[in-house]
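Q: Fold this one first, please.
A: Sequence and structure below.
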Amino acid sequence: MGAAMTPYLVHLNAMTGGLFLLAAFAIVATRQMSACLRWFVAQSLLLTASAAVIGIGLGSGHLAAVAVITFLTKVVVTPWLLRRTVRRELYSRREISQVFNIPTSLLIAAALTLLAYGVLYPVTALGVGAFAAINLPVGLAGLFLGAYTVAVRREALAQLIGLLGMENGAFLAAVSIAHDLPLIAELAAAFDVLVTALVIGLLTRRIYDRVGGTSVGLLDALRER
């Protein structure tokens, strides 16, 4: 029964991975902070789905726990923390300032995705397993796109979304090759994500209260005189 279901689960995981990558592209292309946060939630939900599908396919109880923890921390708690710690206007009305325009950013994102697939092609060609062959390049591409978001965005909260997107990409790759990771490690990783979101959210709010904006270029205004 499990062997008969595996091809269907592999196809379902491939679809989940494709949608995960589209969500990463959407984060790169989105100019509104609220939409950026919604796409991060969607990406996290797809990460949860991938962990659940792989857990079923491999019969791994650890991945079932990963799916539950990921859903609670990234889909529920992290957005709630950001909405509680950061003023609503920071992500509901303002456009995100960035170095490149959207078409240029999408071209760079496409190049980074091709780079991720090219880098991991020798690994996946060796036969790492059906799930890992999907998740490894998609996860690395997600990590690259998250890092690109951090590099080109000029708003602190948008850069936080990029950091969390990087973590999502790394985690998507990890669940396919480290499906027996001890539960304590999974809880520690989830706790780190929440602490990061809380600390950066509080700092962003403090910056806004002090200098009236969240552009990282305004951090110079916080220096001691």
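Q: Good. Now the second chain.
A: Here it is, same layout.
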Amino acid sequence: MILIKNTTIIDGTGKPPFKGDVLIKDDRISAIGTLVNQKADQVIDGLGLTVAPGFINTNTDSDHYLSLLTSPLQKDFLLQGITTIIGGLCGSSLAPLLYGSLKSIRKWTDINQVNINWQTLAQFKDSLHQLRLGVNFGTLVGHSTVRRDLIGEEIRDLTQGELDILKEALKLALKEGALGLSTGLGYTHSRVVPYSEIKSLLPVVAQYHGVYATHLRDEQENLLKSVEETILAAQESGVPTIISHFRPIIGFEDQFLQAIKLIEGSLSSANIYFDVNPFNVSVVPIYTLLPQWAQHNNLEAMSEIIDNSLHLPKIKQDFQRRISQLEDAVIVEAQGNPSLDNVSLKNFSENRGLALPEAVAELMNITRMKALIYYKNINSDLLSQVLLHQRALIGTNSASLDNDPSIIMLERSTQTFSRYIAAAESKNIPLEEIIKRITSVPAKIFGIGKRGVLREGWFADCAILKNKKVVGTIVNGVVAVSNGSLAAARGSGVPL
């Protein structure tokens, strides 16, 4: 048993802080109150500390980067007070796999890092149990993952038979605990997926009380149209709907402001949210830098376009148009070319004696489109406003990479929640309201039972703060972080 004595408690409901003790037995909160004569195996002096529910990271890429499997402790998240993470976003999940293919995530990482020994979500959960995760992990069903298992690299509408198989796969995964469905409509394989297909899947999600999360079909020129489509999906299905990594892209701020007004105006008929993080950078697959007319079929086809001397001048002109953003870009990861990891595009171009547009094309050619780029493309002023919006959910939109020296460490992997708390505090939002927004609110939206609130009989997921900074984390009754440092070599998290 663990007893946290004489502490300040913020229970996650929005209720004002109160003084008391918290008793943890096994993986549950056994008692909250004034526990004068209570004995325990471990007593934590809570004087000067605040105990809150563990934070919920509503958008993670640890599954996309496979670090969920290769670095299961997920320490970058534990050190922030995060006890639960959500994956399977942007249309790509690690389960279910009809035929064992992870092609939908190869734009993020080398899919040959792991051996697949599962197909269903239940089988995947069994694998995660054996890994001893550091955090609890819940996943949505990746629409693109299942769809590409069905039709391979073809870009076309599904037949009725194929759609029926997709529905059955979705239904089984939801029965086995999937939290909902995600789409990646901004990526090449899903950009032409008809709205009617999404609409036909959402009643299945509604039947199992899941959520729908979407990477918008277009975050730039057609942002408004994309948001309207998402609102319509929420209205017609009644499913809680989340726009993934909603961000004000530089050059499209007016559309973004109009999109916010559309969302606010739809709230009486659509249960819609968006996730966001406090950083003005994006990490994108390198192929997304291509003009949209060149983004089609698969990575191999796009590589051929770069090789085509007829198309290349036009592509370089498009790169030249965005030269100010690309000058500050950094190569996060170049699959098969580790010497290029963490190298700026500017240095890459100078080392090869190339102009920057030519260097981007060269990098695409060298990596055959299997590279990730980090660059500043988000309006910071607008971002700071939307970060504190009532419909905003907080997600790192990154992986815990556990200080992998080969990959650039992003601040959003390690500082998202501390930055969010500081930003909210600067606007005089009470700490109890801040905690509610990152605990009980997402737990309710995603249907995560008995987490997100400090309550007797509920799971003992806790964040311990000192001066509003996380110094301790407890996951399912096990101290994972103590005094700001990792306290456990193996994790106590579970697949949800």
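Q: Anything worth noting on the second one?
A: Residues 232 and 270 are 8 Å apart (CA to CA).
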